[in-house]
Amino acid sequence: MNIGKKEKMATTSNNSVADMTTISEIDEDGINYNLRLRYSNDIIYTYSGTILIAVNPYKCINIFNKDYVQQYHMAKMGSLDPHVFALAEAAYRSIVEEKINQSCLISGESGAGKTESTKFVLQYLCAITSNVSSWIQQQILEANTILEAFGNAKTIRNDNSSRFGKFMQVCFNEKHTIEGCVIQDYLLEQSRITFQGPGERNYHVMYQLVAQGQTNKEMRENFCLRPPEFYRYLNTIEDISVDINLESRKFNELTMALTVLQIPQSDIDCIFKVLSSILWLGNIEFMDIDGERCEFSKTDEEIIVILSKMMGLSTNELQMVLLLRQINVRGNITEIPLKLHEARENRHAMARALYSKTFTWLVNKINICTSPGKDFNQFLGVLDIFGFENFTRNSFEQLCINYTNEKLHKFFNHYVFALELSIYKQEDINYTHVEFTDNSLCLELIEKPPRCIFKLLTEQCHMPKGSDSAYLNNLHAEFEYNPMYIKGLDRRHWETEFGIRHYAGKVIYSVEGFVDKNRDMQQDVLFDYMSRSEHTFLCDLAKSQDQSCSNLIPNVSTNQRGTSKSKSTVSDQFRQQLQSLIDVLQNTKLWYIRCIKPNSLKQANIYNESLVLDQLRYLGILDIIRIRREGFPIHLTFSEFISKYKCVIRNKTFSNSLNDILLVLKELKVPETEWQIGKTKIFLRSSAIEPLEDERKRIRCANSIIIQKNWRRYLNNKYYMHVKKSILIIQHAYRGWKLRIKFLRIRRSVIIIQSRLRGVFAREVATALREMRRVDEEMKKRERITFETPTNDYKAIEDCERLVQTEMKVLTNMAEHMNNSIGKSIDKNTVSENNSTEDGSAQNIDTVDLDNLFAFLTDGTTVPTNSVIEEINDTMSSLVQDLDGEELSKYMRGEQNAERELQSIQYIIGLGIEREELRDEIFVQCMRQTTNNPNLEWTDRLWLLMCLTIVAFQPSKLLFRYYFSFLKEKLEVLDGKLRQYAQWCFDNCKCTKVSTRLQPPSSVEVAAMRRLGTIVCRFFFLDSRTKAIDVHPTDTAIDAVQKLADKLNLASIEGWAIFQSRPDGEEHIKSFEYLYDIISEWESKQNSPNSYKRLSNASTYGENRFVFKKRLFKPTRELSQDPVEVGMLYAQAVYSIVKCDEFPVSEKVALQLAGLQAQVALGDPSNQPKPEYYCDINSFLPNRISKTREQQFWIPILAQAHRQYGSSRNELTAKVLYLSCVMQYPLYGTTMFNVIYKGYWSFVNNIILGINCEGVLFIQPEDKVIIYQFKYTDIESILIDPSDSFLTISLNRTTNQSPRLTKDDSIFLDLQKCFVFETVQKHEIGALIISYYPSLSNWILSNFDCTKKGKGITNEDRTRLYQNVIICRRQLIDLNIVRKPHESGGFLRNTLRRLSKHRIEKLRAEQRTSPQDHGETYKGFSHSFWAFSKQQLTFCLSSLTDQDETTMVQIFDSILQFSGLGISGDTIKRAEDEHTRIVQSIMDKCMRKDSLLNELYLQLIKQTTDHPDANSRVNLRNWALLSVACSVILPSTKVIRKYLMAHLKRCSSDFISEEGKYARFAEKCFLRTQGTRRRQWTPSCEEILCTTNRRPCYSKVFFMDGQYYSFEFHPSSTAGDVIQIIKKTIGLQENSLGYALYEMLGNTERSLSNEEKVCDVMAKWERYRSVSKKDYHPSPHHQNISRYMINSSMQPQQHQAFLFKKHLFCDAYINLDDAIEKELLYHQILHSLRSERYPITEMEAIMLTALQAQLELGDYSDNVNDYGSVASHCLPPRFVPNIPHGAVAMHHQSLKGMLPVEAKKAFLNLIQSWPLHRATIFDVMQSFTSNWPRMLWLAVDQNGIHLLEHRSRNILCSHEYESLISFSPNMNSLMIFTGTEKKQSKVILSTSQAFQIATLINEYSEIVKRR
To answer: CA 1374 to CA 1368: how far, in whole Å?
Structure first.
């Protein structure tokens, strides 16, 4: 029943059979009839079991498109009609399911269609592996195109005959996708190069090249090509007609294929030059000279010149090769002239050698390009080898070809027949014996040693005078009686021919040329000359070696050519290759395609039954059908059968016995005729195995569904339970949180109520106590007055002494406490010895002699030793390693000169200011050296140092009490100047307002302190008056203001401030700054190399001075009632009007003000005023007004103004009137700063930024007109750039602004929300804004670190956060992520005998004083495992391999070094660059592997946990490193990420220490990094420095006008984030789309994807710079984006930069109403014009230059003589020299009166006249067609892609995005498929911007899809 069903399925409507093994009665005629019947219906494929029979249709049949590919994919072989796709699918399925290599053998006669079948197999494999790179697909397919052109030729039997064999191994990776392909070639027919038989042609590539030369003039000239009739190698027998157009199209396909294979264009050109040289070689004739030698004819000499040009050789070298031959006898080279016939044969040999080398080079190049590397698992080999050949004249090549077919036929017979029958015989299977053709005798005749045809030929080749005739005689003598050997057709040909009876028939071979062809004489002299050719390709070609079979996978050990002692011949090499192929085939599963040639006419629809029958016979098709039908092709062992099919029966509890097998067959009712059981195997026919397989698949599918159902149920149930549990946890946490909040509110309310009540009660009690105290003091006062006696003085002294004794007791207790803590580590032996001494001595050990502790130390002084004092000394010495005691000693002894002494004082006090831990040491050293010091001068210097120190910084709280007692004691015992020093220290140590100074004392301060005085500073006023006051060292600026106000009788100091006036500008001195620090800064700048000369004034340096003036002005413009303040405001107003010209006063107003000013200065005018009173015009009028007239004209005018406006007014009235007039100006009270606006608007960029009490103003510098103003409440943020002089002001989105100008300008300013200014006074501006509006102080004081305390952290919150950390630690332990620490008890047990009692007690003390365990020891993991350690780890915290553990132990050592700890825990110092190197090294190692990254985070969390000093440098360094890691990459394990977040949240709750700030910063980095793309590069040095200082990263971003901004961003910010920052900063609207951030590398640019991290790009740049720094050589600077970049700060070696510009030009993305976008597009178009990305005509160039001149120069004037500079701004460089200036001037003149806005609009409109003006243009090269130029433009826009002629508007072709099937970029190429699925066209473009183009096309395609 199954057989019938299969026959019915496989039978077509015409009664032809698809699988001929199903025919019951079969014979040769039946097979032939079935094939003919199917062939007549265009059904060319038929099955013979698993063997596919293909009949060549000689026409195109539409059964190979993608529809058929999809139809046969995943289909079982036999379920559909026979097809080559079905066999390819079956082979591919075997690779996927059986994991074994496959081979497909395609055999048949020449012209039977083997090459086409190979193409279809490869095409199918590439199509079904859809996820393979299209480049791999195309490279494999195009390799066939190349090999066909170079290896195929027309023969009398086949128009596309393969003249070589190839075995293509298509390699698959573990995902079963194509990884690559390896090609092995066999025996290229070289003789075809120089000779073709009648009706045959040379190789295809020769005709294609010549045809292309006829259609392409450039190629004809470059390769010296002539018509095909000209070349003798193309017309050896008869003239061959060539279809020029057809061959030219094929040549274009060939060049495209070479491009796809990534062969450089230079190599392609050299290949064609070699081919052209070969053709020219055939035209050399030679002239015979006396029969002994030959020479060149005149024509030959011309050819030699052409060959010299093509091959890069000299004419002499070519003459040597062509006319002479060399003989090497024992090292002596002899040159012998060639005879005529020898020269011609030598010429042929040269041509054959060149072509063979080229072909071999191409195969190797293809293999390199398509090499799978080591990433493949299995391969599918496709063997396309020459078919059986029998021509009229058969030569050596036909013998090798027919030998190959004999070998493969033998292999096929053995595989199909002999092997099958031998298995049947071994297993005792009943079968019908099938006779098959055995060709073993024929193979033995050809190859079996010691005497065979090939061996005799090799012997003849090794003989010095071996010849063809001698070889033929040896054959006749040796094999005359061999049944497979034929001497010849008749006796007439016995001397020239021999024959062999092959399996396909007898073949007669002509022996002529056998010996020479087998020798394959190499042209060593030619290749030696070629190795020195000027063409690199020819040098490589000459040096390349032919491969024998090294490309096969797997390799077989074979001898390569020329490697043996005696050089192997062609037959030997070919035999080795063939044997290697057989070895490979034997290890693969074989599939056969038998190709049948239907007729010899190469015509369609003709079926020659006799010809087909002959092929069927020698192909063994009938035998195959019989053995497939009568045999049992499926063999399974008993165990394999049971294990495979036991699932189909119900009872599965059985063993692998014979009865069990029968049970399976019986269960499924398999007919007994369809199977047999042997000794160890069961044999089945296909009809039996199919129902078994179907039932097995059905059961497996049903069971798989059940398993999937249960598994999905389990997963869903697990997910449901997880969600339910999570919901309960959230509910529980929320309810608990809600109740806690409620409880906390109630408790806090209760506490507030209690505190209020207690406050009421306490205040009542305090009132009563104060009243009682007052009464008591009054009574005591009266008693003292009444009973005052002299004894009271003594009582006061006693009280003072008692107080001192109390202080001493306190210090003694401190010392005892220190002694107790240190004494625990004292050796017990020493303790016992001390106990045996006297009580007095024991008491001395436990007490501290404070007098000796701080006593003066000299070399001669002996101080009693005390262990406590020594311990304190050692501790202090370890803490103050950086304090140079020798420096203090030299200063004290007076061994230095005055200058050096001053430097010592500044050095010591500077150390104390810089390092807080050294301050107490300085005080202690000074006290120590001044106590009992016998030298008065030394003591004087030390007290001077102490006086300077006490006003610089204060002692700590711990030392302050003793220091205070020390001073009180010294006040009693000292006298004279030393007592005054002590009194100074005593007075200043009680000053509570003193904070740390920022600068060491200046020389003026030191000189003043020597005389125990202060500095007298002179303060300048704006009316040229000065005041001198005494300034104390502790006086701040506000103190000086108050002193000045007291001296001037100024009623209020509100708004008044002191400024320091320096040569580089004026700066406000903040109220808390010390004036002595300012003086010290002046002195330090004076001593610098760029300082200015010091003047005689002691209190100032050079032009530095203190200026007193009004800084803050009230909103109301009311005059002060204080006449002093009025006078000072008047002076400041005069200074602003006359000197600074800050107000836009007219000439009339200026004269009114000058008259009032003259009245104040000169009093009432007399009737005849003296002119000299008014001669100083600039003191009355601004320079802007005074320069309009000469001085002699102004004097009477000023006198008149004095009389008119100032007469009869007193001084105060005149000042009031002056101020009243000035206050009317809006700019009064506005502080002005000169800034540069970094943005796009219609105003000038150099403007004035005004700050007043109401807000911020933008002012034009020329006329002082307010451009724009807004209030402080409208400001959203103010950012001060940390590196560059940039100030950014961002406004709220709902700001109501007050525009002051035209409608267009107001529209622009209303839209803009962000302004960037460049100014060196950025900090001064920020401080002034804070003073007026303190709410903005958070932005200005800290732009990045959020110091807001969002909510109070309670103890409950801290406990909860800590418990979260504990929970995470236990999870790490339970999941075995961390490794259990080594036990320390074993160490103690093993070393008890070696430790002294002292050591044991010390260990116990350390154990007792160790950090608290907090009760968190869990499974042996104590708190010390998780907490900070300053010792080197001996093991890792997590489980790692030995190699990784060694790496991470080294990394922990690096962490210690970075934090400032050495291996032993000692502090070390390192430079900043060393720190960044350490961080980069750590991150570089850990980013490569997730396990190392997880270990790094565990180590960093450990080092930042419970450090003893949260603010220490070591701890903050560790936190800085953790912040860097969080900003770069997060741990891969979820539990470690959770632990990290818990750790950060816990530490973030600390708002007091610096650790909390770092923790909050690291938490922010964690959240920003989470969910972003993984970093590829280790962070750069700049990123590390910014992150470790808790600052954002920053980078310069250039714009198309050459300007740049410096933007701040987070280390994890992507390009999309930075684009939003840029848009906000420059004022672009939020809906402005299509912009991108580009990275510029030299002359190339690449757009960053929105997900790409900017810091990653910067890190890549740094790596690039570090690698190329050593090899850098200065070169001409690359062309910048504009002329402005040339003058920018970019150095020549810094090729990298960011560029912001428009990326996508869609209609919806462009808004020209936005002034900012319009400006950006304008500059981008300018750059495109300069870069020749717009094709413009000469007339357009003139118009553009004129419009640009109108923009830059304004209206036309006669002064403009040269438009070259203007043209260089908007035209390509090649246009600039040739621009007609007269035409430009004429057009410029016609634009008179055009506004800049209109000129810019006209400029853009002119550009928009080109339809592709919005396209992005790329320079590309093409080589796939000769009809187009080589250089092209590729334009990509919103409509599609367009190919244009280079620098032209001529569009060659356009493709919309809907017609793009696919596109694939490569390193230097872009491949694009266009058209439809049925009809595709391919475009290959060479460009270095392939990936950039592909990205742009993809982005536009996505936009089109969304439409």
So the answer is: 10
